[in-house]
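[scheduler] slot 2 assigned
[scheduler] job type: sequence-to-structure, two independent chains
[scheduler] chain ordering preserved from manifest
[runner] begin chain α
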Amino acid sequence: MIPCIITAVVLMICIVLVIKCYNTLVTLRNRTDNQKSQIDIQLKRKADLIPVLVDITKEYAGYESEVLQNVVRLRAGVIEGNNTGEAVAADGKLNKAMKQFFAVCERYPELKANKNYMQLSEELTGTEDKITKARQFYNDTATRYNTEIMTFPKSIVAAVFKFHKIDLFPL
């Protein structure tokens, strides 16, 4: 009788531990997914600001249309990305083009004095900061998740329930 009770208690403890490990991993994976969606939201916000900024700039720097067209083309890549990874990669290219775009804008003091241009530039800068913070928070969450699926005993639960490592985004 006593061996049966001991076996039942040990079995119950193991079941509770497996459930706790599983729930922790699910929670961390969901947090990571949420953080990935926050990156998507900020990338979309940035992509929505760019056409307005380009339109304002066209009035002043119309003959430098190659730079403006490149920014618009790369912006489309951010929006059309099939997943967050593609959108982040496209955003990296867009960031390089935006540096060139702002260098062109520097040549036009009357543009830099334009109230709408200044406001949009500030919003874009603020959005860039939010994207960086969202990526950092995503990476922190994904790193914690990855660590949990690699540590014992959660590594056993992760293997049984097919939890896989999540890639980090470059900052």
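[runner] end chain α
[runner] begin chain β
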Amino acid sequence: EKAMKPITLDTIVKKSEDIFTGTIDDEMVAMSIANGKYYQLNRTGSIILSLLDDPRSIRELCEAIQCHYRVDAGVCRDDILEFVNEMAMLNLITVI
């Protein structure tokens, strides 16, 4: 298994091709066809994943989320980097 490149603000990511997303009880879930697993996403995670239908940089994601929420830029960055790293490890998003 090849080591992932570190994800930075300039990393471009997009939703993986084999991911289905849907809503269960107002919570968004993502399903990976590759491994048949479901992942539940909170509201922010849902927004991030829906933004990733098109490739975007982490920086663009941060700007988009800050338009939705009044959140400190540093906190936003840290949270998004953590979320994206997790999603990348689960193969829900692809680093381009």
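[runner] end chain β
[qc] chain β: The mean pLDDT is 89.
[scheduler] slot 2 released
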